[in-house]
């Protein structure tokens, strides 16, 4: 029995391919949401009808500087936006930020 050549194996391998750029983007979203504190903060923002001041986040078990750090990570991932007003920063979720992730997961289960 001989093994198929590399090109043959790629051509006949079942399953869906995921491009490098898509993988980087989706991994960034998943990584940002994989932390329990960031997930709690994101859910609060995504379900809030209005912007949320950093001063109004409930106790999530970490200090205020750590909350700010986690919000920064969510912002870097493109999941939330922020606006400084005086000394306070207000956050909101980005409309459609999870659409690509939702479509990807939906395609996997279809």
Automatic annotation (TrEMBL):
CDD domains, alphabetized: HTH_ARSR
Presence of keyword Transcription: yes
PROSITE patterns given in the database record: HTH_ARSR_2 (PS50987)
Domain of life: Bacteria
Residue ranges of every copy of the HTH arsR-type domain listed in the record: 18-110
Keywords: DNA-binding, Transcription, Transcription regulation
Single GO molecular function: DNA-binding transcription factor activity
Protein name: ArsR family transcriptional regulator
Species in which this protein is naturally found: Luteipulveratus halotolerans
Lineage: Bacteria, Bacillati, Actinomycetota, Actinomycetes, Micrococcales
């Amino acid at each position: 029995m001989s093994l198929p050549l590399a090109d043959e194996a790629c051509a006949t391998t079942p399953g869906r391919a995921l491009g490098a750029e898509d993988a980087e983007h989706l991994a960034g979203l998943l990584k940002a949401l994989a932390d329990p504190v960031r997930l709690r903060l994101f859910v609060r923002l995504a379900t809030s009808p209005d912007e949320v001041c950093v001063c109004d986040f409930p106790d999530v078990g970490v200090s205020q500087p750590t909350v700010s750090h986690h919000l920064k990570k969510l912002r870097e991932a493109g999941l939330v936006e922020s606006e400084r007003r005086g000394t306070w920063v207000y956050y909101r979720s980005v409309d459609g930020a999870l659409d690509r992730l939702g479509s990807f997961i939906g395609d996997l289960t279809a």
